[in-house]
Amino acid sequence: MKLYRMWGIFLRYMFAFYHTLDRLADVFFWPTVDLVLWGLTSRFFISSSSNAQMLLGMLISGLVLWIFPWRAQYELGVNLLEDVWNRNLINIFATPVRFREWVMTLLSIGIAKGIISFSFAGMLAYVLYATNIFKLGIYLFPWAVIITLFGWVFGMLVTSAVMSFGTRIQTLAWTSIYIVVPFAAVYYPVSTLPGWAQTVAHYVPASYVFEAMRAAISGHPVPITALLWPTIMSLLYLGISFSVLVASYRKLLQRGLMSVE
């Protein structure tokens, strides 16, 4: 792997990011909309909750933290689609850039944009609702790592699907990760789910992160060691999804890069 080639791809996507309004909107507009709508919804519960401010903090913090897996998944799927739409995929791989360098670059872009969007949303949450997610401190780092890994799983699976079936399933790039939201316990505890759904949630690494977040906000932080199992699950899922991605890419090379449409 050559860092200078990865840096070149990184700059290519970041230049497009800075000069395209809809890409800027993805980073700043949607977090603003989510915070405004869900923040107002949260305040609706204030009159019926004895711990109103804590409830508000949990909901807003869940929204802000969810940015990491969303961006991680989004950058892989959507950037591939844009290269397909622009007929640019063959141009990238006609250069010395290797497939794994391309993938690593997109993962890096997801991290960079995730940090930018998270920081912006965190500050906005404090200004609008006096909710300071940054007070959770060092716990944010392992949480962000686990759910980012989890987001990459969906991103790689979506990318594999697009390589195999083309743009007719492109909607998965925006919607796939939301399939797991009910089981990830982003906005409510796992205990509120039906029994069968709780069983599913135990195999969703993100659910452990958001449960730990609520525990920390309520003053009962979960030990870092409790996150070992969701970390192992995330790495296992990531290994499987990367294997599927590599297999899809090899089949695509056999058909020809221009066959994706």
Fold and architecture overview:
- The chain is an all-alpha fold and 261 residues long.
- It has one domain.
- Helices cover 73% and strands 0% of the residues.
- The protein has 12 helices and no strands.
- The longest helix is centred in the middle third of the chain and has 31 residues, at 99-129.
- The relative contact order is 0.13.
- The mean pLDDT is 82.
Mean pLDDT reading: 82
Gross geometry: globular
Note the beta-strand portion.
under 5%
Largest sheet: none
Structural class, judged by helices and strands? Answer: mainly alpha
Q: What's the structural domain tally?
A: 1
Q: Segments where pLDDT lies below 50 for 5+ residues?
A: none
End-to-end distance: 29 Å
Task: Count helical runs.
Answer: 12
Helix content: over 70%
Question: How many extended strands?
Answer: 0
List keywords for this structure.
261 residues, mainly alpha, 73% helix
Topology:
Elements: H1 3-18, H2 21-44, H3 52-65, H4 67-85, H5 89-93, H6 99-129, H7 140-165, H8 172-175, H9 181-184, H10 195-201, H11 205-217, H12 228-255
Helix pairs in contact: 1-6, 2-3, 2-6, 3-6, 3-11, 4-6, 4-7, 7-11, 7-12, 11-12
Q: How is this structure best summarized?
A:
The chain is an all-alpha fold and 261 residues long.
